[in-house]
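re: ur question from the group chat, yeah i did fold both. here u go
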Amino acid sequence: MTLKSENGNLKYQIAIPLLIWGVINIIMSIIYLFTSSDLIKGVLTQSFFWGFIDGIIGLVTLIIKKDFDLTKIKKIFLVNVYLDVLYVIIGLFLVILGSSTYVIGNGYGVIIQGLFLLSVDIIHYSHVKKILIEKREI
């Protein structure tokens, strides 16, 4: 099921938070150059790479001309929710089992990014699911 007007709005609802988060992360990662703390360097390493990837995903989402298939996008968000939980678990392992302060910082960075994406993906999944339910009632 595709909804042209809803898809346009949905593209912005998906893309804008990712773009903003990406830019904030990349800007914050500049602190990496000025800190001597390995813990902070680890967090900011993750901040840079996740921010770069999130920014690209947000930009591509805005540029794509094709309408979303809401049923498919709902499934993608659900898969992403499970992946986000996995990211948080991996981050926890890095924090608990980290062999250095830098690795532990990377773990915290992965946890931060995973929690952000988890919240965004749950919100989008719920929103798309609600749209699909409303359209079936018509």
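okk and heres the other one u asked abt
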Amino acid sequence: MSVTKLWVLRHGDAEEPGLGPDAERELTELGRDEARAAGAALAALSVKPDIVLASPRVRAQQTAMLATAELETGFETHLPLSGGFGAQDALSVLAGRAGQTVVLVGHMPDLAIVVRDLSGANVALRTGGLALLRGAGAAFELAVLLRPRESRAISGEDASQTT
């Protein structure tokens, strides 16, 4: 059976809640840097996504736009990633994609729950954090967990920033 790669990317740092509707919160400058670093790290790792899906929330859309620019690819909006996205949703996305590379751009706690339910690993994804699950069918393992600091180091950027 072909190995499927599922990358999950938490949106970058966003404006504080309460300044407007949650779905409209934008990335901060730090968040934009985190999104670019995640995309640059994926590019440095020679990741070539077959599909990138992003939550419709503004901060996830901005993260996807900046990350995919580094990968020289596009992304699609996937409404279920807006909230309540779970392992069954992820498996539905992966159905028929054996051997492919899929990137999901979304939110906590959903992404951590997907990682836990598919691999058994308990993770806390920081803003701009990446996790790679590898597997086949419904059996996955956590292969990589990156904070923005590691993403910057992989991509050759200055890793001395605080995240």
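fwiw on the second one: The longest helix spans residues 29-44. Residues 29 and 113 are 27 Å apart (CA to CA). idk if thats what u expected
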